[in-house]
Amino acid sequence: MKKKESNSNASFEGTVNNGKLSMVVGGRLDAAGVTALWPKARGLLETKRLAAIELDGAGVDYADGAGAALLVHVRQVARRLKIPVEFNGLGADIQEMLDLYPAEKLSEIAEPAPKNGRDLVEGIGEAFCDAIRGVKDHVAFMGELFVGLLQAIVHPRGMRAKDFFLVIEASGPKALPIIAMLGFLVGLILAFQGAVLMKQFGAEIYIADFVGKSVARELGPLITAIIVAGRTGSAFAAEIGTMKVNEEIDAFTTMGLDPVRFLVIPRVTAATLMTPLLAVITNVFGMMGGAVVMMSLGFPLVTYVNRILGSVTAADYLGGLSKSIIFGLLISGAGCLCGLRTGEGASAVGNSATRAVVSSIIMIVIADGLFAVLFYYLGI
Amino acid sequence: MSGETIITVEGFTARYGERLVLDDLSFTVKRGEVFVILGGSGCGKSTLLKHMIGLYHPFAGDIRVGDASVVSTTGAERDALIRRFGVMYQSGALFGSMTLLENVCLPLEEFTSLNKAARELIAKMKLSLVGLAEFAHLMPSEISGGMKKRAAIARAMALDPEILFLDEPSAGLDPITAAELDELIIQLARALKITFVIVTHELPSIYKIADRVIMLDARAKKIIAEGDPATLRDTHEDQWVRDFFNRKSQATGTTGEDDE
Questions:
Q1: What is the CATH number that goes with domain A5-106?
Q2: CA–CA gap between residue B63 and residue B50 (Å, rounded)
Q3: What is the DSSP string of A29-89?
Q4: Candidates B106, B166, B168, partner chain A, best to mutate (most A CBs within 10 A)
Q5: Rounded CA gap, B137 and B126, in Å?
Q6: Which of A100, A157, A246 to mutate to test the interface with B (most CBs of B within 10 A)?
Q7: Domain assignments of chain A as residue spans, ordered by start
Q8: What is the pLDDT of residues B181-232, one digit of tens each?
Q9: Contact between residue B89 and residue B148 where contact means Cβ atoms under 8 Å apart
Q10: CB atoms within 10 A of CB B250
Q11: Cα–Cα distance list, A334 to A180, A307, A339, A353, B130 (Å)
């Protein structure tokens, strides 16, 4: 950035005589002027063994907040060194402005305690405790959610249908274009990469097996889950977080209405139902992407379809879909939890939306790993 | 005023983490009175209110409504207790996805088995009480701040509560709307025998509505004055309290820093 001292109209002269610092300040003490003056003044104020400070401000014709700060700084230094300070010739309006900042009030401004090594240790400890508390919170919330879901299954009439269908619409049909596009592209890219490799062995026909199995088992559910986390999970967190900031959650509680039953259950059930349906679409479009590559390699469509039907078993397909049910539950649960735990202020809502997406994705990956182990032992 | 005690606060202490907010308060609210909690910014008025309605758990002490403790009852008993309260929050806290009518209908829908027509009639009656009948089908985002507060009072009254808690009802309103709100509070207290607990620092409305006030101090973290406002203004032994009620500023001494 350009330095602005060039256009300053302030003047400064200072001398130290027998420990007595005399300064003459004049001109316009605005931000530009003070920028130029401050280093000079500081140099003089740091002189050892000062006994008194005298400042002649007769030449000052204007001072704003920055000018006042310079004068106050001089006064504070004198106060700290316990030496007399005298301002002479200041204009009445400038003196009046200075009187707004009485010395004894400014000295009350608490200086933050100096940093020491303990801060770091304490910080690490606190962060660890926070993390533990966060996990505990999450487990407790999942329990609450589970009870609420059971109640919703037993008494479906207790759930607010309007909210439920609104969430269904927002998280399902409205996500179709992006889900379809992403699924298609991933299938296409996968098949293309496979084609480059398998051409060397003349085994292009296996691209169908490869695309079909990996999309149905892993990529379909995973991509769907990541889109749902980004679209729906963050929306839940932001929506509920805003309600929290607006005291609407408090209003529910003091009306004797349980926010979990009222806000969380419709959202979680809707998102949990929608995620596997979206995964179906991802699967279909992923396999279509593979088909485009296969057809460009000269294979007829019917060969590709037959290959896929032969290689992708019902267990593969349904295993993938059952994963995405769990993913949907985890994502919507995390979104709602982060929303309910929102702090104060507008930035808190943004933070919870971010936290919702991050923790959703972490949980998706962990859950996917657990599923891989589970399916391996089940022989699926 | 029957003089019967409805709310008892005993040895109440609140903390935010390390910071002590209110220290060892004790007071009572009598049935049917308009009770005002008063104090400078940041002295813990809203904190006290949120504890009284059971949103926060106090660090120490007890808050009882009748014989039931807001602090320690749980389960169905607590639900029944909470239902005796109506609360209006500072911002109104109307549910943004519902119209005003649906907002007022919601508690009726959840806690009564009235049919839809009856529920809507009750909701419209409550809305007309606060002068909002013709806006019943608007969304909260379509009305002004003052209207939101009035709609929130209508919602708080939906189930005919015994006690209405209002958090800064007239803050941010123009003098005429604020005066109308004061009239409404007086009418409701008189006609429906509702007990009001109001947090405010609008002096004109305090003189008009308050039967009794307590004044909290940010430094002492205690009640520094209790009584009816006119008496406090004229006879309280503390100069600061008298000045507060006379709207005089003092060159030295401040009430506190920023708002909570």
A1: 3.30.750.24
A2: 11
A3: ESHHHHHHHHHHHHHHHT-TT--EEEEEEEEEEEE-HHHHHHHHHHHHHHHHHT--EEEES
A4: B106
A5: 14
A6: A246
A7: 5-106, 131-378
A8: 888 888 888 888 888 999 887 888 888 888 888 888 877 778 888 888 777 7
A9: no
A10: 11
A11: 25, 39, 8, 10, 40
Could you tell me if A152 lies within 8 Å of chain B, comparing CB atoms? no
Residue B172 belongs to some domain of the structure: no
A258, closest residue in chain B (CA to CA): B79
Q: Say how far apart CA B63 and CA B52 lie, in whole Å.
A: 7
> Does residue B13 sit in helix, strand or coil?
strand
Domain of residue B119, residue span: 98-159
- Tokens 């006879």, located at residue: B235
Q: What is the pLDDT of residues B8-33, one digit of tens each?
A: 888 888 888 777 888 888 888 888 88
Structural domain includes residue B211? no
Instruction: Please report whether residue B155 resides in a domain.
Output: yes
Domain presence at residue B114:
yes
Confidence check on the interface: ipTM exceeds 0.85, yes or no: no
User: Pairing between strand B223-227 and B85-88?
Assistant: unpaired
| A26: enclosing H helix or E strand | strand A20-29
pLDDT digits (tens, 9 = 90+) for A75-131: 888 888 888 888 888 888 888 888 887 776 666 555 666 666 678 888 899 999 988
Q: Determine the residue type at B216.
A: L
Q: Determine whether A92 is exposed, middle or buried from the number of CB atoms within 10 Å of its CB (0-12, 13-18, 19+).
A: exposed
Q: How far is B227 from chain A (nearest CA, A)?
A: 29
Burial A316-328 (b: 16+ CB within 10 A, else e): bbebbbbbbebbb
Handedness of CA B144, B147, B149, B154 (dihedral sign): negative
Nearest CA to B216 out of B16, B34, B2, B42 is that of B42
Q: How many domains does chain B have?
A: 1
The residues near A371 (Cβ < 8 Å, ≥ 6 apart) are A319, A323, A326
